[in-house]
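Q: Give me the 3D complex with iron/sulfur cluster.
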Amino acid sequence: MPYALNRVTVPVTVDADKCIADKGCTVCVDVCPLDVLAIDLTKGTAYMKFDECWYCMPCEKDCPTGAVNVDIPYLLR
Ligand code: SF4
Ligand code: SF4
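A: Here is the predicted complex, encoded as structure tokens.
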């Protein structure tokens, strides 16, 4: 799987101000069937580690603070 080198252009982004990974939340990482999300321990936020996505949405739906945004490609909508 390709590493997500640029965190700004990946389809799944996390609002660092809303993310509570620093308080122990790992919901989005746990629900992702592809295991492409991870927690950045130095920043205390979740992020897309691998640039691969099924657009299945549980990461966005289950995030308790609404920090996750999945940018669905136009052709899949
Ligand atoms: S589910 Fe939301 S609050 Fe929890 S780690 Fe993921 S982005 Fe952060
Ligand atoms: S939309 Fe699905 S595959 Fe993509 S990051 Fe979220 S849970 Fe993982």
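A quick observation: Residues 12, 31-32, 34, 36-37, 53-59, 70 surround iron/sulfur cluster (ligand 2) (CB under 6 Å).
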